[in-house]
Amino acid sequence: MPRSTSSSSAKGGPVTLSMVATRAGVSPQTVSNALNSPDLLRPETLERVRRAIDEMGYRPSRAAQTLRTRSSKLIGYGMRPSPPGTTFPVMDRFLHALSEAADETGYRIVLFAEPAGDASLKGYEELLGQHNVDAFVISDTAERNDPRQAWLAKRDVPFVAFGRMWSKRQIGDWVDVDGACGTDAAVEHLIALGHRRIAFLGWRRGSGIGDDRAEGWQRAMRRHGLPTRGRRVESADDVDAARAAVKPLLDAGATAVVAASDTVALGCYYALRERGATPGRDVAVVGFDDSPIAAILSPGLTTLAQPLEEIGRECVRLLLARIAAPAAPPERILLDPSLVVRDSAPTPDA
């Protein structure tokens, strides 16, 4: 039985399974049974072994677990760099939430570099071959010709995506945020404030996520009989690009702007200040993502928060279910964002 490498004996060396057996007055096989097949032991014996394990701080090594179960307890995740000009990479918070959720189930996240826009699957091939990971989590699924889902599915490698595939063919399990629901709620909030000339500062058409967020704005506007023609402009997800793109909306007299992200909302802030106007007082602004900068801007940015902790938990849950039942039908989960109200679009009674 391989030794533990995560705890130490009084002499400074690693605590071994044999040392635990001596402490508990049982055989090494009995300790192994207590860890792996506790139902084989009498309750008093199991309690004695567990007490010795706790007192000595023994932890079975990952190598031993891998040999026994043929599972590495490792989940691969490819990290892509955030585009230049963005104010906050949402994926950092997602990765923290994912890691916490994985830790709670005994798994660990293994990171590897994935160059932005790179269609190569080299990182996935190497991680499968060299480290025998059990599964993958993928994100940044907006690319129309993303090969990762089909490649993993063809090889029967369990995976879950944070984000929908924005094509007709859907592969595998995913968890995503309902952007349309979020921007719909943002428009409702602005209407309650008395706004009727509500514009949308979005991403370029063809972006699945951006189009989804634009759809919610358009849906709510039509529901209230408000015009949308000439009240939507497109921008890259970049502060300077958004500052230039929003100017026609402000020239046309928009009293409120719903932005596709906090990054483009910040561009709107800059454009307003160039005109001597104040966000919230002269033109209401709502962002999307609830990045850290949203709370420290002056005035604070009203924005939509993605439920990243819940997304992390759901991703891990779906992965474990897929590992346990590879042939089960795919599961897709759509979660609602929540409106975080600050001074750029305060509550109606503020």
Task: Give a short summary of the structure.
The chain has helices at 17-24, 28-36, 43-56, 62-69, 90-104, 122-131, 148-154, 179-192, 208-223, 239-245, 247-251, 262-274, 292-296, 308-324, and strands spanning 74-79, 108-113, 135-138, 159-162, 173-177, 198-203, 232-235, 256-259, 284-286, 303-305, 332-335, 338-340. The chain is α/β, with parallel strands linked by helices.
What does this structure look like?
The model is unreliable at 1-7 and 62-69 (pLDDT under 50). The chain is elongated and about 80 Å long. Strands 2-1-3-4-5-11 form a 6-stranded parallel β-sheet, with helices on both faces. It has a 4-stranded parallel β-sheet with strand order 7-6-8-9, sandwiched between helices. The chain has a two-stranded antiparallel sheet with strand order 10-12. It has helices at residues 17-24, 28-36, 43-56, 62-69, 90-104, 122-131, 148-154, 179-192, 208-223, 239-245, 247-251, 262-274, 292-296, 308-324, and strands at residues 74-79, 108-113, 135-138, 159-162, 173-177, 198-203, 232-235, 256-259, 284-286, 303-305, 332-335, 338-340. It is an alpha/beta fold. The chain folds into 3 domains: 17-69, 434 Repressor (Amino-terminal Domain) (Orthogonal Bundle); 74-176 and 308-335, Rossmann fold, CATH 3.40.50.2300; 179-306, Rossmann fold (3-Layer(aba) Sandwich), CATH 3.40.50.2300. It contains 14 helices and 12 strands. The N and C termini lie far apart (66 Å). The longest helix has 17 residues, at 308-324. One of its GO terms (molecular function) is DNA binding. Pfam families: LacI, Peripla_BP_3. It comes from Streptomyces vastus.
